[in-house]
Amino acid sequence: MQYYIVDAFTNKPFGGNPAGVVLLDKDFPTDSLMQQVAAELRYSETAFVQRNGANEFTVRYFTPKSEVDLCGHATIASFGLLKQEGIVPRGSTCLNHTLAGDLTVRVGDNVMMEMATPRVVEREVDVERLCHIMGCQVPDMPVEIVSTGLPDIILPVSSLAELEALHPDMEALTLLSRELEVVGVHAFSAVGDQFTAHVRNFAPLYGVDEESATGTANAALTHYLQHRGMIVPGKDYTFMQGEKMGRPSVVETSLTPDGQVYVGGRWYTVAKGELLI
Q: What is the pTM (predicted TM-score) of this model?
């Protein structure tokens, strides 16, 4: 079984967010084997890609602990690799079957994936408890759970300095995430420089204390900002993530006039190997 290590949301090695990618030449292996492979590779997500036809694929995503419905950075890594290997031509529009639904992926110099229809999850968050867990002040802006395929708590903080100073209690955050049925917390500071916002993402429930680039969560943040009147449809936006981890990542989003969100960026393949199983 051949695998690749691909850094997503960067065009340089050792930046962005690394994902394992396995390009299958036949049916999916057993769930238990895919879970074991993901645990062995130890990346936040490993994608298993099955080709169904011309520009049509099914992708399944596994963290070291469990399968998840969708993963943005592993999708960027997968379709970037498909282009690199000559399986998908530049300029293609692909169909990606996922547990979160059927999504369109546009493959060019970068990869942009359509997200599920954005929605605010009507579930109350105890903001004081959340901020105590995260080590921050209670924000002036609302805290909401937003999903574009996976639900995340969107947490505004007052400044870039406060964002950098976050130090979550991972055990308490795991418990809260389980109670609220969310992946984790996506914190942001809108600082008004060349990026729409600087962000950090924490998902210890899924074995990821902090992630250097998170496509689904930045898509959710794009919807949050539009919902709050801070950005407008019909434009593109960029988010800087991973600075605190030494893996700066540029996550691009595109907000269509009807409010649909695409998320994506560049990629860099750093390694490939073979699992002798």
A: 0.85
